[in-house]
């Protein structure tokens, strides 16, 4: 039987009434699983965010402090009450001159465009006012990028013992730095930071549009405001690394997948797949985004058998593989070196199970690099030693369950209950200018404390209202509104196993903003309707 025959048979089977009934049950089961797991995670994060706050010092060491739960509860309640009051007051002015003025303004000024302009101005102001330099991995990648620009480069960094030999997955971001430095000059970090600003704007556009696709276009304005209030987005523009660029491309990939689900256009498939490939080129961790995309493509295929959906899934995987391995293959061709996979992935899992000077499961130079070097840079031998270390840690956890629970509890809160997501830590590097009074105040003085406390409360608001979204939409049968939630769930579970850091979970936290915004709008609408109903009853009496 040829492919066309198989395809027709598959479509006929899918249209069978018994198969259709089973399909609906399976989709309902999947929808229920996603909602339950997502709700449990959000419940844990909401509670821990109110109970504990973590902070990161200049050496990236995490500290833990108890929080005041009543302050968080009052803050969330007060914000929601203010939003409800504002909606009620606005609705009471229907037909007034103020509404007409606002309607005229919105004809000429798009609110989301205002958000983009505000973020652009803030981003440019921040990178120009700080001109943060690089250290650690950022500097090492930039240094390799500059070296590769010269024809007599001997690719020593890609040889055993070299930084790129250990971590060849950094080749993608090195290529991006090479492009920026060729155009704008060697070690021109400001030019890269400008790229980060535009990446932030791409993320803004994508996440606002995702809000509409999730099911509530009226919440787009609230999403825009919440993006501006989440200041770490602006702070991250100084980070000369792939975090913000990868987030922008990854979120755009999710947005264009939503567009495909609605319009079934080939161009949305191509753009989405290219975007996830670019995200992989920035950071391979965006595999989590790809897996979320693939899960929903499979579910979409179950709902309706389509050839394009199969093509989409294959093309997205190809683009991801090309984005993550293509630069390595290119360097291998240029240098004539056989570049391996570097430190085995299982070593990251092993590191995620170990104590660290920073926090449980965080980065540990001494373990990671020493293990690879002591194994003679042999990937197989390193993987075997990492497996032995994992078995040893599992035995420790088995013999002391209390310690295991404490270890993973601290690992979780160090990533998810640090409200700045290391955005202040990444700004600690040497500055290219003398800081102005206000910037110095934000980074080093009184305003830093105020900003951190606001973000602490704001973090709880995001977690809490996202949980309310799940509760309020528990009967919603639209399976596809849980696409970002699946990525967040995957990120949460992955970094409980993998190496931990707040800068990693940052990329998943921001995906909660649409859910939080929609929940806020639903609460405003529901509360306003009840208020109006009560007022009408009083008038009747």
Overall 3D shape? globular
Number of helices: 24
What is the percentage of strand-forming residues? under 5%
| Low-pLDDT regions | none
Regarding quaternary structure, what we see is: single chain
Q: Enumerate the strands of the largest sheet in spatial order, edge to edge or round the barrel.
A: 1-2
First and last CA, distance: 76 Å
Question: Tally of extended strands?
Answer: 2
Helix percentage range? over 70%
Question: What structural category do the secondary elements indicate?
Answer: mainly alpha
Largest sheet: 2 strands, antiparallel
- H/E element sequence: HHEEHHHHHHHHHHHHHHHHHHHHHH
Radius of gyration from CA coordinates: 25 Å
Mean pLDDT across residues: 87
Structure description:
This protein is mainly α and 541 residues long. The chain contains 24 helices and 2 strands. It has helices at residues 3-14, 17-51, 69-92, 97-108, 111-130, 136-148, 163-166, 171-184, 189-214, 220-229, 232-235, 243-263, 266-282, 287-303, 307-335, 345-351, 365-374, 379-399, 401-416, 437-444, 446-472, 483-497, 502-509, 513-540; strands at 52-56, 62-66. It has a two-stranded antiparallel ribbon. A hairpin with a 5-residue loop joins strand 1 and strand 2. Helix 22 (483-497) runs antiparallel to helix 23 (502-509). The longest helix is centred in the N-terminal third of the chain and has 35 residues, at 17-51. It starts with a helix and ends with a helix.
